[in-house]
Known about the structure:
By secondary structure, this protein is of the alpha/beta class. It has twelve helices and nine strands. The model has no long low-confidence stretch (mean pLDDT 97).
Amino acid sequence: MKIGFIGLGNMGAPMAANLAKAGHEVTGFDMADVAIEGVTMASSGPEAAKGADVVITMLPNGQILRAVADELIPAMDKGAALVDCSTVDVESARAVAEKAKAAGLLAVDAPVSGGVGGATAGTLTFMAGGSDEAFAKAAPLFDIMGQKAVHCGTAGAGQAAKICNNMILGVTMIATCEAFALADKLGLDRQKMFDVVSTSSGYSWTMNAYCPAPGVGPQSPSDNDYKPGFAADLMLKDLRLSQQAAEAADADTPMGQMARDLYALFVEGEDGAGMDFSAMLPRFEKRGRS
Ligand code: NAD
């Protein structure tokens, strides 16, 4: 396939490289000066999009996506697919899909989980929203860049799935960290705490696969001085998106709201910026009740 790829940062660059490695003809564009093996660089987004079967975007946020999509859509051939893999607000995803549809294009919102490691290894999970035809067009590319793609529903459903998942993740990480900090104060050994919880009803992905206590459980960012991994800043972004969506949909999400506020304090008022999101544990360790 002829593929245009816009946004070649930490995630986009290895994703584009994997598509080129698989034999697709990839033309890329990024505002920054980047070079990727096997990818031809264009001098603008529309130039990269012209004549492409599929155009993929991997951008920082919904506002940038909307602006970039306004430039790309008129340059694309009718019947081509615009596939946005960024994490953005549900409203922007739906607005871009509407505009693409009106111009005779197929559109998919397909945010990912798996991080930079998954993007490099080609093991991302895609959660996709769009028509059956649009999903079918993008699916072979998801198979190259990832190991699983779930078609979640119509436009915006991929973003909805992503922010609901990450709201659970943020809340669960906080609960796991505060429980470890309480266990410390009760004199409970962390390994014993892990042995019990990881095989009891309190188990979770954050405990069992990404344990925030160094030296306990499988290797995780806590064993590497809490270097990300999944940065607390990105967790804050996703928690803000979930609260924005909850407000728009009139959904009561008190735990998600508290998680957003706590990560905002951690990242913007304390020393959490640039740390892994599991660094909530050393934060709680240092604190008392007030
Ligand atoms: P990044 O900042 O490394 O990359 C974004 C790229 O977009 C940059 O290279 C930037 O120069 C480019 N860009 C910005 N505006 C542009 C424009 N107008 N035209 C062309 N290029 C433009 O970010 P990232 O870590 O690659 O994340 C990309 C998206 O993936 C975000 O939405 C993020 O939330 C999501 N995401 C990231 C991770 C992760 O672990 N990094 C995991 C899952 C999802």
